[in-house]
Structures are given as C-alpha cells and as structure tokens.
Design a protein that fits this description.
Blueprint: H1 3-28, H2 41-44, E1 79-82, E2 88-91, E3 96-97, E4 102-103, E5 111-113, H3 134-149, E6 156-159, E7 164-167, E8 184-186, H4 201-208, E9 216-223, E10 231-237, E11 241-242, H5 245-253, H6 269-277
Antiparallel strand pairs: 1-2, 2-5, 3-4, 6-7, 7-8, 9-10, 10-11
Length: about 290
C-alpha cells in the first residue's frame, strides 16, 4: 500500500471521529428535543375527582314502585292474590279465580289491600272507592276476639294455627304475631289446663277475676303437693286458706278437688268468708274436709 493511500484512510477515520463528537455534543445541548414531538396531554389533564360518597347521593327512582307486599301480611283466614294490575290483595276466601285474578268473597271486607289507595274494581260507581286496608281489618278482628279471650293487661289478640296469643302491645300488620319486644300470654293447647300452664291467657283471665276474702291475700301459683306439675291460685290468711269458687269450679272440670262439696266446704272462699268474716254459718253448716289433692 502506498503512502498516499495510508494518509487517505487515516484522514477518513479522523473525519468520522469528528462527526461522532459533533453528534454527541448536539444531544448534550438538547438539540434532539427539537426533533422529537413531546405529547403533553397527560400533563395538561385536570385532576380526576373521586365519585361522591354513597350517603351523599340522592336516589331518584326511575320506575314506579310495585304494590307487591309479602303475602303473610293477610289477615287470618284470608288468601293472598294479585289482580291483573299486579296489586297485592287479600281475599276473605280461598276461592280465587286464577284466570281473571278475582276474589269471589262478597261484602265490604271481602277483599282488602296491603297498601292504601288501591281502587276497588268491584265498585260500580265512579271508581273513586278504594279497598279497605288489610291491616285495619286484622286489627278489628283481633279487637273483637280480645274481649272474650284476652286479659286486660294483654288485650291485643293474635290468632295462631293451633291456638292464639294475647299481647300487651300492638300486633304486626298481618296480626300474625306480637310486635317484637311485647309481653304476651298464650292460649291453652291440647292437654294443657290453667293448673298445669300458669302462664296461659286463660289462667291470667281467671286471676283477674279473683277477689280474696278480707284479711287474706292471693298466691297465684300455689303448688299442689300431690299433683306434680300442677298449681292453682289460693288465698292465704291467718285463720286459714281458701280457694276462690271460680278456681274450684274450673278444677273440678279437669278432675281436681272432686272429693269436696263446693257449696259447703271451708276450702271454698265464699264459705270461708261467710264463716270467718260474716259469721253467718255455724260449724254444723260447713264441711271441713281437705281435698286429697292438697
């Protein structure tokens, strides 16, 4: 290789070296930024706000609420059904026309509604009348039953499939149970009596009707020593004890105190009162035999 060729090669290498230095210097001075388009979209975007809290949102219904309610709110002996409009109703009969969705029961209380304002389609006038509320009918029914079955302190009646309850507070809308937290008594079931179920409504009614003689006081749950699991109300006094006539009458119907004469025995509070307080009976006029159940 000749000398001039060697010089040419060395010169070319030098030029390349200088160009590389120039390019490197240009990047360092920021010239490359002018050749690259920078996207500042994200930098210019506004701050993203979080959605409002759920409690701060005001619900606006975009639909009409249904009139459907749970079927167990019907009064006792009523049957739940829905009419062609989808309204929840109760029929005072189990005879429902399933095709026309109508109730065959007649009368003002033949059909009731679970919510107010449902037009009574049976009304032949201008259609302005509405069905009575099932809650109101249930309350009226339980008030009618309360008078004969419920004691004064548990005056609200509830009908159960096999018995009943009496509540000290209002009952639920369907009159199917006492309101939560209410005190109550229960009606007697099969095999139960006021003497083996002292917390029964019948026993509470009996206790409310009892007046003990002067100088005695009532023990509502006196255990009968010879009848396991049984007790009865008894009037305790300094001169002796007696049992109210109503209690003896109820007891004799279930086989208790059957061995005494209710009209003359000193165990009867009426006889006790006449003998000790009124002094109108002599020793010969009373029976002093004590029942074998005591």
């Amino acid at each position: 290789m000749q000398i001039w060729q060697i010089c040419l090669i060395v010169g070319a290498i030098g030029i390349i070296f200088v160009l590389l230095i120039s390019i490197s210097t240009g990047i360092g001075n920021g010239n490359l930024a002018h050749s690259i388009k920078v996207d500042n979209t994200c930098a210019n975007t506004k701050k993203v706000e979080l959605p409002p809290r759920r409690s701060a949102v005001q619900d606006v219904a975009s639909y009409k609420l249904s009139n459907l309610q749970p079927p167990d709110n019907c009064p006792n002996n009523y049957t739940f059904f829905t009419d062609l409009e989808g309204n929840s109703l109760c029929c005072a009969s189990s005879n429902i026309n399933v095709f026309e969705r109508t109730c065959t029961a007649k009368g003002k209380e033949g059909v009731c509604a679970l919510v107010p304002g449902i037009i009574d389609t049976r009304d032949e006038s201008d259609g302005s009348k509405t069905y009575p509320l099932c809650h109101d009918i249930a309350v009226q029914h339980q008030l009618r039953n309360s008078g004969s079955l419920c004691p004064a302190r548990y005056k609200y009646h509830v009908t159960l499939p096999d018995s009943y309850k009496c509540c000290d507070g209002h009952v639920n809308p369907g009159a199917s149970d006492c309101n939560s937290g209410s005190k109550f008594c229960g009606g007697l079931k099969g095999g139960q009596t006021v003497f083996n179920t002292p917390d029964s409504c019948e026993n509470v009614v009996l206790l409310e009707s009892i007046d003990c003689p002067v100088n005695t006081h009532l023990i509502s749950d006196f255990k009968l020593p010879k009848k396991a699991g049984s007790s009865c109300p008894i009037c305790i006094g300094a001169k002796g004890n007696c049992i109210p006539r109503k209690v003896i009458e109820a007891a004799q119907k279930v086989g208790l105190f059957a061995d005494i004469d209710i009209n003359t025995n000193i165990m009867n509070c009426d006889v006790y009162d006449k003998y000790y307080n009124d002094r109108v009976l002599s020793d010969s006029q009373i029976q002093v035999k004590i029942s074998q159940d005591l």
